[in-house]
Structure formats: C-alpha cells, structure tokens
C-alpha cells in the first residue's frame, strides 16, 4: 500500500505543480525537492510492501513512509486552497491588502518549513534503506530468504492430478455439466474455464472431471499442470509435453535440449494430431495465457484445455471458443453435509443427543463460512479434534481465528485466509486501496456501487493519470472499470445489476471482508469504531475477529457504527482526528438514541476530511454546525435519509465538493443559495421538496453530471444551458412555466446529451394540462436518453418516442395514460425494461392488453399496484424475449393471463401481495398452475388481504 500511496501523492503533486503553479508561488522549490525524494524512494516500495507482513521493522519503515507521503499531500493541498481562496476575495482596501500580503508571507515561510521537514523525513527514510535491508534481495526473514518464502508458498499451492479428495459435497451438477462440454463432438469448445473466488473448490472440481470415466474414455492422452502466480512458460510446456507423450528417460533429455521454439512446435503438433485433455490449474493473468497459447492449436484439433482461474478475463477473453463455468458457493444443506462428513461421521462415541447438539452448533458455525468449501473444510478439521460440546462452543467463541489459521490456530498455511490473501497480493497497486475501502461497510451490507465509486473519487483513489491513460474517460467510468476488475478477480461479488447490465450493488464474502479488515489494520488504512454512551469509553475495534493491536502509523479513515448503545455521533475528541480523511457513519439494527436532537461535532477536529457520510440517521434530528464550512477539503458530503431541516450558508466554502447529497427525510428543507460556488460539483442530489430564498443559482456548475430534482419553483431552467456535462436529470414541474419553448431552445444542446431523465409532473391530486404538455416538451428535447421515468399525470406520450435510438428502460408511475397509449409503448423497438406502477392508465381502463408482436425486445416487466386492472391479456407473439416478470399488489387481478404459456423464454417469475384467490390458483393443484409450470424459477410471496372496512 505504501507504493500506492506514494504513487497517488506523486501524481497529485505533479498535477498540482503543473496546473496550479500560481498557487505554489514561494514554495515551488521545496515541493520539487520533496517530489524528487519520493521518486527516488518509489522503486523500493514494492519489495517493502511485500515484506512488511513478515518483518516488524520493515512494517514500521513502510508506515513512516506512507505517513510522510500523506502529510506532504495535506500540506501542499491546504496551502493551495488557502492561496486560491484569498486570490478570489478581491481586497479593495489597501491597508487590508498589505495585511493580507504579510499574512501570506508568514504562511509561505511556515508552509515552506513544513515541506522541508517532511522532505527531511523522507530523505532519512530513503537513506535508512540499507539498515532495514530493503535494498537487498534476497533478504533473510525469520531464517528464510525472501525468495525461499515465495518458493515455499508456491509449493504449498501446487496441485497434483493424482490427489483425489475424499470429502467432496455439492459438485455433482458441476461435474455433469463440464463433462458434457468436454466429450461432445458437435459445437465443441476448445477451452473450458472454471472461474470463481479462492477456496470455492475449482481445483477439486477439475480433478473430479479429470478422472471421470467418460472423460477418460473420450480422450487419448492427458496432462495436468499447476501454473500458479509465478509461471515459467517453458517449464509448463515441458510438463505438458512429457505427460502427453509419456516420455521415456531419453525423450525427457531430448526435450530438455530443445529450443524454446522447437518445444512449442512439438507440443502444437501433438495436440493437433491426438485427442488430448490438458488441465491448466490456477492461471492468474491473461498475459500468462497468451504466452502459453502459442503452443496450443486453435483450429482442426480435437484437443481441449480445461483451466481454472480467479480472474474472469482469463476465463473468458474475447475471440476464444470457450465455455465458462462459474462455480458457486455451497448452499446451507450442502455446507452442513460437508461439515458432518469431516467433523462428525465415523465417531463411535457420539450418541444421538450429542450428534443433534453438534449438528445444531455446526449450523451456527457455518454462517461464518458463507458456503466457501475451503473455510468449511478448515473449520470441520478443527472440530474433528474436539470431542465435547463445550469444546465446540469454545471454537464458536473465536471461530474466525480458527478459520483463518486452521487447526491449533498457529499453522498459518493450514487456514483459509492465506489462500484468499493471494488474491489481494495479486492486485495491482491502484486497486488495493479501492479494495480496502470496502472494509468501511458492516458485515453483509449491500453496497451501492454509485456511492462507492464516488467515495473512491473523493479520496483520490481514481487518479488523473488513470484518466489520461483511459483516453479521456470520465473518472466515474474509470471507477466503474476498477469495480468490474475487482469482480473479475473474484474479490467482490455482484449484487443487483441494472437494465443495461451495469452493476448497481455489490457485496463481499464474509471471509474476504475479514481479509479486508486485517489488511486495512496492517496498513493503518481504516479503523472501525462505535459511538458509545457518554459514560463508556470509545472502543475502536474493527471486528470481533480482528486483533486489537495498535495500528502502525496514523489512522486516515474512520467508520463509526451506531448501535443500540449510541446516543451521539462523535464520541470524544481524539488527537488523531486531524489526519482523518474519511468519516462514515453506519446505523446498525434498531438504533434508538435517548436525545431528540444531536449536533454533529466537533467537526473542527477533522481538518483534512474529504468524505463525510451521515446516512440513514433518521431516529434523531441532526444539526450541522456552521463550522462545517471550514472543512474545505471535503469532496463528498451525504446526509441522505437523515433528519436535517436546514443547512448552514457556510457550505458555500466547500469549493472542492464533487458529490453533495441533500436527499433528507424532512418534507421541506431550506437550502441556502450557495451551491453555485461549488464549481467542482459532479453529482448534486436535492430532496423532492425544498425551499430556498429565490432561485438556486446553478449555471456555474459546468462539471455537473447528475442533477436530481431540479424544481421549477426554486430553480431557473435557463441555468441548464451551462451544465454542459449533464448526463442524468430529475426535474419537478411544480409550476406552469412561461416561455418554455424558448427555454428549451436555449438549453437544447445540453438536454440532447442527457442519458437518464425523470419528469415529476406536479401533484397527483391535480390534473393540469400544462404540467402534462410541459413534461412531454422536455422529453421531446432529450432524444438520446437510455432511461426515462414519468411520475405523475401525463395522459399522452410523445409520439416520436418510438424513434429514440437508445431508450431501453421506461418507468411509468401514476401517469393516468389514455388506453390508446399502449400502442406507443408496444412499438418501442429497443425497450428491455418496463415498470408499470400505480394508476398508469386512466381509471376506466380495466383491461390490460399486450398485443401480438408488441414489445419485441422486452426482457423485464414489473406490474405493481395496478389496482385499476381487472383483466390482463397476453396474446401469442407478444414479448417474445421476456425472461423476468414481477407482479405485486394488483388487487383487481384474480387470475393470471392465459398467454403466459406463450412466453417460452420466461425464466424468473415473482408474485407477491396479490389477492388470495390468485395465490390459490397458482398452487400446484390450482387452475392457473399450468400457465407457469414451464418457468424454471417461481417465487411466490405472501398474499394481500385488504383491511376490514
């Protein structure tokens, strides 16, 4: 991580010195010297980072280097912001001008001395490299050289084809599917890939397939090679070639004497002439595959390669005839069966009573494994040596330590965590801090990708250098690419995906989170704490499983968990707060504070804070102090779903803000007219209802990409013309607008770039033709939208909607459309997602008809709270591509449409909150069951019983 920190700081300092040179006047020489010192040190950091886990002195050296780099960034940025703010004030009074010059001079000398002191620390650390033995490789570590340590890890990870596990559970379906793809002759795949996170059992599955009788009968020759992270291409080729031809001693010697090109060609010919199965176990990079692939025939071959990998880019790269098999965790029953097989079965001294108690406790322990076979096997191995219930309960008290370290809790390589840590070690430096940032979130928390990527940006983890290398892609796109790579490397799991395939939410496996917290503690990256009652001491623990060791280095990030004991947001003053860059609050469970109102303070202690996230604090009113305006480093401020009535006008000082989220719980919030000063804003979220003194000025926000709930009552729509980077717009039409056509002409070029649009048409209780026409006019100006939501009375859709080339998602809520508008909807050629919510059609529309040939591309349909509909017809040929259907709380529908039987591509059906009569008809013995029996996944929730009149 020191390598990542120093690299990020060098980029920041370099860009600041180039682009903001005018703000570094007087200290530019000191900055240049510090920059040079960091550059000279940079080459040693990869080795130092890798070794700090084995050498405490190296860990201290790394922490000091990391802190010095952070301190340099803080000092330079703080000085630059001060100078920038003074130059913008415009001092008229000559005496005040001289006083300002004097103060600036004092600041220049002070800042210069601070930079020189930090530079001296960095220089001394660089000169001490030799005494820390960082410059020499190999270096002795606990009796082993660094290279020997890696060699030992390589041998421990090496796999062999002849080792067959006795304890295998839950792989039967996986084996059958893979064997089918290996032995088929028509439309066969040259490569079959098994992809999944570490510890899922990829190697075990590959062995089961390798020894399957149908596979042994189908292929003529076999080879198994463990590739691992440190791959020597020639050695892999030699190993495959020797096994495929069953080489004699003489042939082995001839192979050793072949040139690089000769052995590649020989292997190519053998695999082309024979029907071979080659297992490449544990490939870590696409580069390794590309090098190995030179010796493998692409066409006119009956040979197949089966590979295992943690990296999706290896498993399924472009332009390869490949079948991808994604391995999943075990379910609850499979997990218990594996645990019982190892830990319980075969014990002669266990009676039924003890067995039952062990089984019950085993279920409880398995929650910590989350279906990961490696973790289950490690845990079961520990439990197999424990003979009493009391001993099993003792394991439960410290279960994470046993899973991490294995039997006896001291043999690191018998545990699960070091296997998972290989994935972390393999991350490129720019992804490691992105991964560690996930440690802020509580266990089992679904993480919003939109929020997470904005947090990364605010912390500077998405750098300008990455943006330049990505040919001008936005920082948001680069951040999403980083998340995608973490998913492809199997350290992050996908939660929900959007209609266009983008990842909406993500999660991390419990054991990956444990790894994340341990690495974050080692790197002084993050500290988790609990905001406790006044009479209790702060308890800054990261998790029940994390050792409460004192962090090496300054803590830069705090995640505060508000549990049932918390009665305030900040527990006490802490001398380390001056270094904190991120302060994130998370509400756990049922939080019931004793007070009705809390003041978010003392924020003045957090001098370089970049991120402040106070979300979901809705059980108590939160008051933001005026001092928040002094936190000029803030890039991210969110109070979403918290109780806040008012914001101080000092917010206008936060000129570095990139994300500002005002979506609070109160119906009406007063917003000071200072947002226009925040010229770096990229994402602005206003509440649905707010007030302001006059129109909120927004025309200066040229970087803005997201603007949620632009109100026609408190904003001037002409300001949109200045928002030249706007991609997502939510607008609330609360008043009829004069001269809307002229306004739309002036802002037309901006609206034409919008990708996502929501139009909220006034109040549901008022039918106003002005609102409806204005909404249509705005939609007609946004011809390149991908997503459209119309909320409120609309009556008619724009007639040209069918010609919008990118429109794939449409949400209609309380629109009261005329019944002839279904013809426009059905003819949208690229629509893949349609959500119909609450009174979409007029009250007299009782029948919903999906006509033949309608909705040709629709994949997901949601029908929710459509109480006005009493009959739904689906004609044959309608929605031919539909694979997911959701129905809920439609009180007038008592039967399913007969036409569901025509939807042969339907894979998922969810029904909930429907009338009890309909629920009874879709049971296996019900009249409507035949309409849905072809659907592979049917989820039926509870029926809805209307309240008694």
Task: Catalogue the unreliable spans.
Answer: 90-99, 101-106, 136-156, 408-413, 532-549
User: What does the average pLDDT come to?
Assistant: 82
CATH architecture of the domain at 158-326: 3-Layer(aba) Sandwich
Radius of gyration: 31 Å
Strand content: 5-15%
Highest CATH level, the class of the domain at 158-326: Alpha Beta
- CATH fold descriptor of the domain at 158-326: Rossmann fold
The biggest beta sheet reads: 17 strands, parallel
What is the helix tally? 30
- Count of DSSP strands: 33
Termini separation: 64 Å
Global morphology: globular
Structure commentary:
It contains 30 helices and 33 strands. The chain has 949 residues and is of the alpha/beta class. Among the domains are: 143 residues, no CATH class; 169 residues, Rossmann fold, CATH 3.40.50.300; 85 residues, no CATH class; 95 residues, Arc Repressor Mutant, subunit A (Orthogonal Bundle); 165 residues, Alpha-Beta Horseshoe (Leucine-rich repeat, LRR (right-handed beta-alpha superhelix)), CATH 3.80.10. The chain has a 17-stranded parallel beta sheet, sandwiched between helices. The longest helix has 34 residues. It is globular and about 95 Å long. It holds the Pfam family WHD_DRP. One of its GO terms (molecular function) is ADP binding. Keywords: Nucleotide-binding, Plant defense, Repeat. InterPro entries: Apaf_helical, Disease_R_plants, LRR_dom_sf, LRR_R13L4/SHOC2-like, NB-ARC, P-loop_NTPase, RX-like_CC, Rx_N.
